[in-house]
Amino acid sequence: MSRFTREGNNNMMRRSWIWGISLLVVILAALALPSLKSDKVPTSSNESGSTGFHLEVEGNPVASAAAATSSADAAYINVVDYGAVGNGKKDDWNGISKAIAKAKALRDKGRQVTLLFPELTEFRSSKAIVIPANISVDQRAPLIYTGTAYVPFLTLGEESTVTGAEYSGLNVRRSKLVDWSKDKSHKAIGIRIINANNSGIHIQRAENFSIGVETIGIGTGFAYNDIRLGKITSNQIGLKVTNKRNKAKVSGWNNENLYTGGNFAVWSGNNTSQSRYGIVITTEDGSYKNNNNNVFVKPSFELNQRNTKGSAESVPIVIEHGLNNTFDYVRNETNGIYMARLKNKSNNNSFNVSYGDAKLDDQSEFGNQIVTTQESSFFDQFTLRESFNLSERWNKSNTAASLDGMSFLSNKGGEPTATNNFDCISSSKGFVTFANGCVAVGAMIDVSVVKQFVIKRAAQNELGGRVIVRGYDKNGKLLSGSGNWLRGMSNNSFYFADTFGGVYMSARDMADPVYFDVKDNVKKVWVGVTAGSGKAVINSFGIFTRSTDYPAVYSGG
User: Fold this and answer.
1) DSSP 357-398
2) How high is the mean pLDDT of the chain?
3) Gene3D superfamilies, from UniProt (predicted)?
4) What is the CATH number of domain 382-554?
């Protein structure tokens, strides 16, 4: 036999061996896989005689493929297999109810059950839908409530029973918007989730109810859940976080949950004479008033205050009973005066607003709420370098006035002076008053190294006047407006004015903090305060720098 013949035979034997092993693997895999047909299959090891993997799949082949990778004793119940159509026309309540009954029966046998609403047009229901505890939901098409009763439409879970079910793609809409004035007790709820614990919950949409979404602990806790929020629109209360006693008078609680996202909005023309609220933390019966440590990340509130009538208000956040709850990166747009309202013993709640105002209506018994904005977080980087109490530094001899450690700058120009004899400036009752077109008072700062500053004034906002900054180069030469050597802030920028010999002046009469920085060619600046379009009445002003900076400050006169 030639060498080529021997090698050919060996190669054929190796290929036959590989093909044989591959065929054996395929046969074993086929024997191990459960049936994925939509017919009913055995639901327990006693019925099938098997002791391995148990799976029930109803209908949808996509769900079947997903379920094939589920854990032991898992079951997918497809509502379509029980009579629901999902065509957006037929009332699917009977079919959905039958599917829920099947899911409950399997759950009671110890199965891990998921109720599937497959990807169809929409499922319409004339009656409320109640899914018991520990039945997960995979919703891939909207649920539409076509009834008129003021009841919770989709209820997940039950009182006194902890549920660890997973809820995905929850999407509900009431076909006709609730008249909020006729549902004073807020019974028309889109999605009500009871006693979830360590669950993953994704709410895609809740629209046209009195309450869009309610999470509630009844007789036990709603806690440790990861909740993703989508469009929560045209509800009088977008999200209600609450608790109450069960029938045995055992109280519930609602703590330690993470809520992410949420587009809380009310469309124009909807219940325009009625108030609306984004998130409310409260208790139904007063049994537990310390709902705490719930964290809300990046909720967006657009409740449409501008389209309301009369006394209707739009408040993004209301905490009636709650403590240590956190709201981060809040968007507060087209709402009312207040970003949040606090009542009763609510305290130590934290609010960080990344867009819009951050004003609180704090009616609580305590004052320790925490409020920050992107702007306030920026200002927090700066610490006080020098404080000038104008009234305490004020001295007047005959007609000449002076301020210890400070200097005056005439609006007609010239260099700063230690004294002045203008009648337009005076001191009384702890404040120095500047008339319009008067002098400025301030001090010189060495900015050869330190370039960033914040100026604050102790004054009523409309009487805070203006901040002016005069710049000098390395040779002590006065800088003109060319070169844009100073930057300010967007909400109170600076412009170059020819008065005071040429200075950058803040744009508005106000007492809010003012930031500015200067370019490298600027080596010293004279910074002061003066009147703007109206008079200024100022007690003091302060120069703030970053915590590691400490520039030289002197009178300059």
Assistant:
1) ---EEE-SS----EEEEHHHHHHTTEEEEEEEEHHHHEEEET
2) 90
3) Single-stranded right-handed beta-helix, Pectin lyase-like
4) 2.60.120
